[in-house]
Amino acid sequence: MLCCSLLRFEWGSPGMIEIRIGNGYDIHQLVGGRPLILGGVHIPHELGLLGHSDADVLTHAMMDAVLGALSLGDIGHYFPPTDPQWAGADSLKLLAQVHGLIQGRGWQIGNLDSVIVAERPKLKPHLNDMRDRISQVLKLQPDQVGIKATTNEKLGPVGREEGIAAYAVVLLQR
Ligand code: MG
Q: What pTM does this model have?
């Protein structure tokens, strides 16, 4: 009986799919003289994000979500801002390395969802490009990668355009 067999399953039993969830958050300061890169996409704007790498706050939040799902620490552990080899680093390449870490443990991404919080510029025209870049790096279908954008309704440092923040959640399976 289907109902009874469903009720009898136990985690870890043969044939069961294991799942994990992870979440990530990041914020970077907006300054002059820096490019604005989000999800690997260069977005025209008079301000850019300050950071040791390319400061791609969306990709950083996604990496922390993936690492968190397997309790592997955070991106500061793997790519410390004190290490000159990561100066100006392309965060998509770092994301590929993080993806390799979980693949090496037999895990794959079920889906990823995220939100960027930015007062300006308008990000909607760039969201599909970001989704395409991220899904290519992670070898996912585009519909496995959610990227949304919202403002902070002029509230707080993000609302005052002092920075851009991003949140991400991921589901891993094996
Ligand atoms: Mg960061």
A: 0.92
